[in-house]
Fold:
Amino acid sequence: MPSDASSPPSSTKIKKLTYADAGVDIEAGDKVVDLIQAMMKRTHGPRVIGEHGAFAGMFRLDYNEQLFKRNFREPVLVACTDGAGTKVKLAAQMGIYNTIGIDCVAMNVNDLIVQGAEPLIFLDYLGLSKVIPEQTAQMVEGVARGCELAGCALLGGETAEMPDVYAPGDFDIAGFAVGVVELERAIDPTRVEQGDIIIALASSGVHSNGYSLVRRIVREGNLQLDQIYPDLDPTRTLGQVLLEPTRIYAKPIVRLLRRYTVKKIVTGMAHITGSGLPGNIPRAFSPDLDADIDLGSWTVPSIFEFLQRHGNIDRAEMWNVFNMGVGYVLIVRPAFAESILRQLNRFGEEAWILGKIVKGTGAVRLE
Structure:
């Protein structure tokens, strides 16, 4: 009878294979779990239930049931997911792993608070070519720090070693955030009216958008990540400037919103991410309005002029890709604008009046 072509000849000796032979080190993964336990616990409050290492994390909507009933009559869960984009390539290239987790948290919670929600929990996902315990722990250290800055609990996560998917040295990071908002207090774009004032909160730099273009500028402009450029920053290398973590606005925004439990003073908000001011501010109001932006109200940070010059980038392209120094925007009632501005400054934010809402067609006017 003919032999089965799918079966190896009887004389062939097949080596006993292990997971390690396939490129996955279980012991290294277990070591990471041991290293990150303390980091996670720093973010836990009394609403976190159970011990680290369970198959899933548990979080009470409030540890005091009566308090929860008083604060929320119609609680709405708000969820979002995001990553740090190709900024991870720069982190890997620079060998700096302890801040990219902050970026990941920021990109999630800054979106979540736009809805008026308070961040509650965060979970992270790390995909790597190889688990190097100390290096991986640094990534999670950034996530934990981001959660502390956002006031939410790092409830769990996943670290996946996939050498067939990621090239040596490569990794990716993503996250998932959940928050809560009272239905009546959820931000609604239809509340924004003509005459409302736009308040800006300063960004900490490029944040986590546009890094495919940033890396192209670095490459084609023959820029060196480990070099100090005095016209940019006399104390930090270009790589350090570009890896400045995304600013997290959760605590000041949540604190501000809690001061207005009856009046709806804040009518709209926007997280300035990819597409910049022109692409994100219109998401905060109805299409019969425009945002009139005063370009003379702030000085664009030097990193953007540096990138524009070395990459020969058109002005319009810069404004449509980068935040240009504005990381977050609030739209507020005119009578309360100065008061809110003072409060945000007291909370440690660099805030200023960016412009106003006018009749229009759903656009941003940069004037």
